[in-house]
Specification:
By secondary structure, this protein is α/β, with parallel strands linked by helices. It has helices at residues 17-31, 49-57, 73-83, 103-111, 134-147, 180-188, 212-230, 233-239; strands at residues 7-13, 36-42, 62-66, 88-91, 117-121, 161-164, 193-197. It is globular, with a radius of gyration of 17 Å. The chain starts with 6 loop residues before the first strand and ends with a helix. 42% of the residues are buried.
Amino acid sequence: MPRTPSVSIVLPTFNERETLERIHPRLVAAVAGRDAEIVVVDDSSPDGTGDLVRSLADRGPYRLVERPARSGLASAVLDGFRAARGDRIVVMDADGSHPPETIGPLLEPLERGEAEFVLASRRAPGGSSPGLSRPRQAISFGARMLAWPLIRVSDPMSGFFAFDRRILARNELHPVGYKIALEVLVRCRPSPIREVGFVFSERIAGESKLNGSEVGAYLHHIARLYGFRLSGGARRARSTR
């Protein structure tokens, strides 16, 4: 019977073989001492990301969820949630912009029972974003202002976060695009929320997947979340605690 880990690290990937190969030692070191699994959700990357994960699984805590076609970040993360076996789930990018060394500080408030959701924030004390170009900083600022009435956290655009998986039972998730933390925060209403500062770096290799269509998807997503809030969905989520 396979073991049941206490922590699941969910990594959505598409053409991230080179970056994953380089952060692999840091990932393994970050979860050392914890009963953890690293769940890589790969959209059949043509660069061989899946083959790399299969080879890493022979000597590390990796599991591969391989999807037949590129279906987007949102559905990849949801598939990762479904496949995850841990009571605590961490979501992060595999491109090196999210430092694995922050995994421990994200998990500690959950393990101490001090939070249901912990956000890695570029705007919390100790955080910064030297990896963001000026145009991306401007986009991030505008997106953050649009989200501010929905959830009062310093960096709702962050894609690096950890949470107690029990909060997922409070509501169905219907994310559009790539801001999964915002979806979980608004629909599941975790409390308490803690924030941990981190330094967002440039991706190690490859190209950013942020483009005009992703910006459009964010606007669609934020409109749906406002509709959810106005319909009273957030109150229903709180009542299920």
